[in-house]
Amino acid sequence: MKKTFLILLLVSGYVIAFGQVKTDSVLYKKLSAMFKEDQKWRIESAKLYNHQKSEYDRETVDKNWSIADSTNEAEAKRILNKYGFPGYSLVGQSGSSKFWAIVQHCDDNVAFQQKVLLLMKKEVDRKNASGENYAYLTDRVLTNLNQKQLYGTQGIYDPKTKKWAPLPIKDAAHVEARRKALGMISLKQYIADTNAAN
Prior knowledge:
Layout: H1 2-19, H2 25-49, H3 58-83, H4 88-104, H5 110-125, H6 131-144, E1 155-158, E2 163-166, H7 175-181, H8 187-197
Antiparallel strand pairs: 1-2
InterPro entries: DUF6624
């Protein structure tokens, strides 16, 4: 009986150690707070842009948006240096996506985005991070460098036609294959969904 119990404990320990079932709740809470601040000022900005009621004026929104992005970028650098790209095993799918979203908004530091992209690729290959998020960050970096994107995630809205369309795509003939490889919906469906949401 004792021997059986000991084996169960060892197996349980093995699952926790190698399957990394337990996530870092402190880091997850930090990422959640960072993401909340990231979204707050973007939401308030959208309200003002759409002539909706906001508790803040444009100057306050823009100032706090800039502060939030700068603070989040500095903290994201510390997290990356300590943990690498935080994947599912460390902070769950939600926490990992929150970190990615914050990095997406570090457009003033493309070198940092590129560094994150390299580390994120390793986690995507291990099925420990989102392939779709990886595609978005890849395209974000490429468009920030004034290069053609690969997955068609970045686009522009034409106020005249009221339609969204992707920015130029490199090797567009194979974009659907690239998207499929990362578990993404077709570009045609993505464009339709984006326009339906506008």
